[in-house]
Amino acid sequence: MAAYIVRRLWQMIPTLLGVVLLVFLLFKFFGGDPAEILGGLNATPEQVQQIRDQLGLNSPWYVQLGIYLKGVVTLDWGRSWATNEAVGHIFATRLPATLTVMLPILVLDTLVALPIAMAVAYRRGSLGDRAIMVISTVALSISFLVYIIVGQYVFGFQLGWFPVQGWSDSTLTNLVRYVPLPVMLALMVGVAPQTRLYRTFFLDELGHDYVRTARAKGMTERTVLFRHVLRNAMIPILTNIGLALPGVFVGSFLIEVFFSIPGLGREVILAVNRSDYPVIQALTVYLAMLTMLINLSVDVLYKLVDPRVVLK
Amino acid sequence: MSEPATSAVLPPMTGAAREARSEGVWLAAWRRLRRDRVGMVSLAIVLLFVLLIGLAATGLVARDWQTEVAVPSAPPTLLGPAPAVVRAEIAAPAGPPVDISAVDPLAPYYKQWAERAAQYKTVAVQRAETLTFGADRLGRDVLAKALKGTQTSVFVGLLAALVATVIGTLLGALGGFFGGKVGDFLEWLYSVFTSIPDILLILSFAVIFGRGIGSVAIILALVGWTGIYRQVRAEFIKHSTRDYVRAAEAIGASTTSRMFRHILPNVSHVILVRTSLLVVGFIKFEVILSYLGLGVGVDDVSWGTMLAEAQSELILGYWWQLAAATLFMAVFVTAFSLMTDALRDALDPKLRGLE
């Protein structure tokens, strides 16, 4: 096990290097000129040149790449060019906001979808089963944008149940006042397809021989479903949650932009618009690392949940 | 798939016997698809949309979507014209008009100007009070915009899916068939692309390629090829050691021929299903990109740009543009998804449950 983990960690290095290179090349050679963006519309060429000198944009590209790589290795990202805020501080302050919205979405999505999926899988082919399929197809066909626009208008503006957007310093106020609307809208889009996916997992398990054996032994349906089927279906469900986890840490930029939540997703868009290299580079590497580490933990978790799985 | 072999033992096949040869995978799939009622209905709807798009592209429909044919924000016909806004008007002066020509410095020019103005022909545009689907802020027909927007959005989705399929299939075929160094390199490329969050990749490519229908398609394709690559690679690994490929190699078929004339047709149904899954995803992404102002050009209309306009209209109570864009999108995407589901069931029952 330990050898496996070490090897997987070792394999991350070339991938991470590729990520670093790709992002560096994209923004260095194709992106906007940060000096001109920072200088503003009225900057003279000399001023722009000065900013370029200050930021080190005039040094050769390999020197700049070297600085970037040093940042990756030492985890010291420097400061944002646009706001002079330390990149570490940006993470520390934006991540909690992102998690405050995304974690309730993930948890509620799973908690609502699981029982429905189990119920409709158990009554396969019934009206409820078919209704779920239809609802999930239709719900998914409309852009999330429409949900947000209509949701803000109806629940925030017309009915006044929630504030249209906003954020505060207290996590409790955020959870009670500002988070419910985005979470509710995300659930409206997310629960149906999630149910549909979990339904296939349950159907898969229900078709196995052990279910018939358990029933033949005279076990109650409840025991069959909760002690046997649910446990086995948890493997693909856990994978699915694992796959969704990196997204939780990036945040949904749509939600964050529309509800003015100061999270990481919004920071990505802001940074790209300002060609704020330190922030873009740090965010990319952070997210790439996170994705790879989560994938590794999911694989290790497999082994723990299901001893039949051989890691290689 | 297999051509009935003419053998020395069996009598050569006559016309009737040839008819009875086993049906190909596509014919069998079509037979299965035809039995699927939901699939056929959605196929018909998709074809109807394709027809509409063709009409819009050739200019037969919605050619003049940019003309302002109605009063600003004219409501749909069903609702009737908007109530006239009562404005406090300046009371008309009573009594005889006062002759001020003695002190008016412009007085000598009035006649000359009137003559000159008469030389120009002006057409008084009668702006409609209501339209079938209403009008937008500028008085443009929402129905025409929705039709034209459908053309843009669906075209972008299809083009992007096509480009992504070509990239993914080519790389997947190379990686799966050759393996070794090439395979390792492509796997590395794949893991690099999948480790960077989509939104960051899309935004950075958007900065490079700028706005426009073609750019959006390329951006989406460059970000979205990984899924197809993965599946095609797996299929090629599986097929490259099969007997029929070995046999092709034995009779001297070149590498390219084995890859693209022998294996590719055998995995093409998998690719088709993947491509149609991509179309739906790309259409949704185009809407979001256009909304953010990174999508189609300023002169184009798409579902995304319509939604962007609709947001500010909604606050004023003009909901029809939002409704039109949503309706067209919902109908098309639902029909397309159901068609994809039916296609998947018909082409490869083993793929069932793949999301």
Can you offer a commentary on this structure?
The complex is a heterodimer of chains A (312) and B (355). With 312 residues, chain A is mainly alpha-helical. Chain A has helices spanning 2-30, 34-39, 45-55, 61-74, 87-122, 127-141, 144-158, 171-178, 180-206, 209-216, 221-250, 253-258, 264-274, 277-305. Chain A has a single domain (87-305), classed as Orthogonal Bundle (MetI-like fold), CATH 1.10.3720. Chain A contains 14 helices and no strands. Chain A is globular, with a radius of gyration of 24 Å. Chain B is built from 13 helices and no strands. Chain B is mostly helical. Classes of the chains: A mainly alpha (312), B mainly alpha (355). The interface between A and B is large, with 46 and 40 residues.
Return the structural class of chain B.
Answer: mainly alpha
Shape of chain A: globular
How many helical stretches of chain A? 14
- Topology as H/E string of chain B? HHHHHHHHHHHHH
Q: How large, in whole angstroms, is the Cα Rg of chain A?
A: 24 Å
Overall pLDDT level of chain A? 82
Work out the number of β strands of chain B: 0
| Measured distance between first and last alpha carbons of chain A | 10 Å
Tell me the domain tally of chain A. Answer: 1
This entry's quaternary arrangement is: heterodimer
Could you give the distance between the termini of chain B? 28 Å
